[in-house]
Amino acid sequence: MRKKITVVGAGQVGTTVAQLLAYKNLGNVVLIDIVEGIPQGKALDLQESGCLQAFDSIITGTNDYKDTADSDIVVITAGLPRKPGQSRTDLLGINGKIVKSVTEEIMKYSPNPIIIVVSNPLDAMVHVAKKVSGLPKNRVMGMAGVLDAARFRTFISLELKCSMVEIDAMVLGGHGDSMVPIPRYATVSGISIIDLMTKEQIDRLVDRTRKGGAEIVGLLKKGSAFLAPGASAVKMVESILRDKKCILPCTAYLEGEYGWSGIQFGVPVKLGLTGIEEIIQLKLTDEEKAAVDTSAREVQEMIEEIDKII
Ligand code: APR
Q: Which of 9, 24, 103, 240 fits 78 for a cystine, CB–CB 3.0-4.6 Å?
């Protein structure tokens, strides 16, 4: 039987996610939003591209959570995007309430979904989804590291003028300015960038990666990035539904890993049919560990803050 994937929020990110899920024939897609007409219109428009893009998925647009019943995966993109000058944290209260209500509605109709949160501020929103859903830690995760690593990979490729597909990278930590790209683990065909670039070059690319979201917000003026975020969420869905067991940086619930417990944090995980099948523990240098700790403290504070709101 075809898998069922619900995408909550038919905005920029949600629409991109729905489109890529369909193009990759990953399952039937339900697009849901609070605004009437938008998910229905976008779903029909996407469905009408099926014969051109050669997909058989059924795309449903709706405002009724009954239509999401028995979803295998739910991607939550509902919420406000950033405006220029705003940080992701500025969205905490408003998006926290949205993610809470969305998760409650989802859980009424799907007993055991895997939830991938995209809404920002990401780490806190994953915390809300896990707390409200009561799902086990392997079934609730956030999309951040895949995107941050993709940005780092892109900047490396542009700097070295070499193919993007040979480049790999790892970014740990919260999805904010304190995220921790790890140059040691950034490679071009297996060669660490430390052997290919100067420290000045690496520092510049790390800084651009940390500010990658703001760079796009500044250019767009209205709304935030959606093409690479959408593709990143679909990469996670694909690894889960096809049981590919990709190792990807995702936001996961820590219980002692990296010296932290009770927080949602970006770490390398193995993604398969049951969701997060393993958290990979890296041996970090003192400097890397200090940066991870700084990021974790920030995330912990944000989680304490959202717990007071919801
Ligand atoms: N239930 C369902 N949909 C909702 C709800 C809700 N309670 N509240 C808002 N929405 C919908 C809006 O109607 C809108 O269609 O969420 C959609 C958000 O779309 P956009 O405004 O285009 O925002 P987008 O760029 O897609 O970003 C969504 O993802 O990357 C993050 O920071 C970003 O938090 C933001 C989220």
A: 9
